[in-house]
Prior knowledge:
The protein has helices at 7-14, 33-59, 75-80, 106-116, 134-155, 214-240, 258-262, and strands at 64-67, 71-74, 85-94, 100-104, 162-171, 183-192, 199-206, 247-249, 278-282, 285-295, 298-306. The chain is an alpha+beta fold and 317 residues long. The chain folds into 2 domains: 31-225, Chemotaxis protein chec (3-Layer(aba) Sandwich), CATH 3.40.1550; 243-258 and 273-317, no CATH class. Strand 3 and strand 4 form a beta hairpin. The radius of gyration is 36 Å and the shape is elongated.
Amino acid sequence: xxxxxxxxxxxxxxxxxxxxxxxxxxxxxxxxxxxxxxxxxxxxxxxxxxxxxxxxxxxxxxxxxxxxxxxxxxxxxxxxxxxxxxxxxxxxxxxxxxxxxxxxxxxxxxxxxxxxxxxxxxxxxxxxxxxxxxxxxxxxxxxxxxxxxxxxxxxxxxxxxxxxxxxxxxxxxxxxxxxxxxxxxxxxxxxxxxxxxxxxxxxxxxxxxxxxxxxxxxxxxxxxxxxxxxxxxxxxxxxxxxxxxxxxxxxxxxxxxxxxxxxxxxxxxxxxxxxxxxxxxxxxxxxxxxxxxxxxxxxxxxxxxxxxxxxxxxxxx
Length: 317
């Protein structure tokens, strides 16, 4: 290139020619997490309600479970925030790539066991060993299997998942889902009540695994928003059913001149001509037509036609 070329010329020189292959690192493109997390938050809200039912058999009452907004971070950042001894279960969810981790605090597991066997849900005394008892292992297996079943059920409208346990770890350093520098999605559920104290449960997914379901998650958000609009319209329609409107009918419309009006006095008789059918008027609209009669000693209106849209003056709307 000639000496003194501009910056724009430099960009053109560096740009690949049409049809020329360029290097690309898989997983390095922008993942646009915001578009996915909206759908995940909807799933998380419903999953929180299911987790109440999952935990109830263990704590003997239905605890309060709240889903925090889904967040993203590096996998090693999330892993470094865990205590050294914890419960981490890895499940494969085919065809979703990477699977899912379930992280549960070990103290909460001990309180669950105590509550399950009739205790008050108090934590056991701190112990030097870094392993769960046989009873805790059995309860963990039942609990995580129930959580996974709830996850599969909530994801069924997006994709049918086939879960399989891949392994359990108690050392956070050995937890493996993706490489440490890769991003993950964390769905955190805060649990309060039931006599077992407060805790949180983390569900962790590879962010890259969400790529295949981004469109479906986004579509689900819009579909649920549309369902919400329908529910609003239904409730509004039910509320409007109790709104009252004045209803009237015009039997005759005599015409008088100004001089006749000025000459009116008590006892005068104004001749009228009754039409064969009279209107039923709601507000300023002619709703129906019918005839005047009598029922049980009272004047009555019998509807003969419905749907006329004439105004009282005869003008069509």
